[in-house]
Amino acid sequence: MSHQESVAIGIDLGGTNIKAGIVNDRGEVVYRLVLPTEAYLGGEALLQRVISIVEQLSDEARKRGWSLIGTGIGTAGQVNHAEGVVMGATANLPGWAGMKLGEQLHASTGLPVSVDNDANAMAFGEAWVGSGRNWRNFVCVTLGTGVGGCLIVDGKPYRGRSGYAGEVGHHVIVDGGEPCNCGRTGCWEQYASVTGLMRMARQVDPEAKELVSSKAVFSLAREDHKLASVLVRQYARYIAIGLANLIHIFNPEGIVVGGAITKQGNFLLDIVREELASSLLPVYRNSPETIDVVAAMLEDDGGVIGAAADIFEKMK
């Protein structure tokens, strides 16, 4: 990479790990770091950890003669993108709510900073150089410990009035259903997340010791294990119900599905596509209105690339 090329720092901050990297203006991660979040130490300690990562990556960029334009960060929780403030955080990030992340990072590092929700960052990465690069308008969902999402409109994340748009995990699909950690019941997150899958496994048969993890459930389902197959079909059905709602509301060109669950590849997505076909309005079942559901392709780099995309966009 020639020294004239601009680079940005991208940080994907989750409850377990902080993934960070230096990204060039073609969306390539040219240097990577992964560190444990250590969120239990509290918000102030986490801020210092992020500052230290930015300083380390800034030094690396300088050492290599790269032109660093700023830092983008995608974090779990609700983020006021315009102000760079984390307005709401999950229990996984104690003391993080209310953090003026943009202001604090800029004051400590002197770099321009953009702050966004982690699902928005991942979606922006997929829109730039990933599975959504050929679409202008699509929905991106992440199925992991929780369920996140983002609507991409004209190639960029739609954030809504205060930056809280895209909380697709908290639209209700079962009236009076399972309690959610948001305080409501029946949220999609309780049925389409890995956590939801494992709860369903315990409910179906508390004695089924072989259904010990999501990996085990899928592995057994691939071998036509009766209970695991029923479980995966029901899980795919719940995913499809939520996706059908999003398709009917937004009429996107396609859906990009990311998160831990995509490690199952087409085995799960094919079942989701089957279930989705019977959940959609007739107009969507007839070509050319078919909606593609595809796996995210950037894997662990998605949030890092998307966070960098946001700072490239901001600095245009």
Automatic annotation (TrEMBL):
Pfam families: ROK. Gene3D superfamilies: 3.30.420.40. InterPro entries: ATPase_NBD, ROK. Belongs to the ROK (NagC/XylR) family. This is ROK family protein. It comes from Paenibacillus puldeungensis.
